[in-house]
Specification:
3 helices; elongated; mainly alpha
Length: 81
Amino acid sequence: MAQRDGLASVNLGSAKIIGQRLVSEGRFENLSDACRAGLRRLEEDARVVDGLVAMAEEGLRSGIAADFDIDSFVAEVPASS
C-alpha cells in the first residue's frame, strides 16, 4: 500500500465493483466512503467477537453450578419450530 500525505492507494480487486455499485445506488458519496464504512463494520464486528470471547472465558472460569440439573434445563427449553 502506497501512502503519501495521509492518502493511501489500495488495490481493491473485485471488491471495487461492489463499492462502485453502492455508490451508484446512492448509498455512499464515493468509493472512499464505502471503504471506510466497511472498515468501521469490521472494527465493530471485532469488538463483538472480543466481547463474546470474554463472556465465554468468564463462563468457563465460573465453573458448573453444583446443583445444575441438565435434564430439567433441557425440559424447560422451548422446542424450535
